[in-house]
Specification:
114 residues; elongated; mainly alpha; Substrate Binding Domain Of Dnak, Chain:A, Domain 2; 3 helices
Length: 114
């Protein structure tokens, strides 16, 4: 990479953070799809035995939607700490990748049944 994208500048830091965030976002999407498939399979098994247990797939969907709102609000708050300064961009991207990575790992565990 050129000198401006080496991580030593705000632009470089943002590019590095954004690339890492993209990785975790793709991993999160795969993890969510796997967890969703596992939840639907569990719901089908429970329906087969006429269980009155709450369905897992809708609960997973609702949890993920609430997590997205929480992530966005948290990262907006972290960005606001910079008072409009140049550190706000890297702060929000760092927050997004950190929270997305953690949620991805969580969903991988859910999708694996553990």
């Amino acid at each position: 990479m050129g000198a401006t994208l080496d991580g030593g500048t705000t632009i470089g830091m943002m590019q590095c953070l954004d690339n890492e965030r993209d990785y975790w976002d793709a991993r999160l999407n795969r993890s969510y799809q796997q967890a969703r498939a596992a939840a639907k399979a569990q719901d089908a098994e429970m329906a087969d035995i006429d269980s009155s247990a709450p369905q897992t797939a809708p609960a997973l969907r609702d949890m993920q939607r609430a997590w997205i709102a929480y992530r966005d609000a948290t990262c907006d708050f972290e960005q606001s700490q910079w008072g409009g300064g140049s550190g706000g961009g890297p702060a929000v991207l760092s927050c997004l990748l950190r929270m997305t990575g953690a949620q991805s790992v969580y969903l991988e565990q859910v999708g694996a049944g553990g």
